[in-house]
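Need a sequence for this fold. Nothing fancy.
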């Protein structure tokens, strides 16, 4: 009987943390899973980080991306200091041990490869292969 009560209490915690029925549906739509855990922190881009030590290692830390991103989230949207914590390189999150700030460090920018905002270098050399142009009659 206590096994069933434990499962019901976990279901209730998942339901409450994900924002009710609509929140659970939207989270399932965006990430295909429902999790519950302790809130660890939030970065300057609005991503929220959670941890639940009852899950297996490798699945016990996760990020909920900002709702403005919707389903267009990508791993490159996680800043370096949070990446260290998510991948178990650092034991303490950046909220406990803040990263060292240097003047010469650039701000984090997501990788835009495969989108219209990707970086395409300008080439000044002539291409080695030219496309065939059919003759005009």
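Here you go.
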């Amino acid at each position: 009987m206590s096994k069933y009560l434990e499962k019901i209490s976990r279901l209730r915690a998942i339901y409450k943390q994900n924002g009710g029925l609509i929140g659970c549906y939207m989270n399932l739509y965006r990430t295909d899973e429902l999790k519950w855990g302790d809130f660890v922190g939030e970065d300057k881009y609005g991503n929220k980080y959670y941890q639940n030590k009852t899950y297996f290692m490798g699945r016990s830390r996760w990020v909920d991306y900002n709702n403005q991103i919707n389903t267009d989230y990508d791993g490159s949207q996680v800043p370096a200091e949070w990446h260290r914590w998510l991948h178990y390189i650092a034991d303490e999150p950046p909220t406990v041990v803040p990263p060292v700030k240097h003047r010469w460090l650039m701000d984090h920018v997501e990788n835009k490869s495969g989108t219209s905002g990707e970086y395409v270098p300008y080439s000044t050399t002539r291409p080695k292969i030219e496309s065939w142009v059919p003759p005009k009659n």
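For context: The helical segments are 2-17, 20-31, 80-86.
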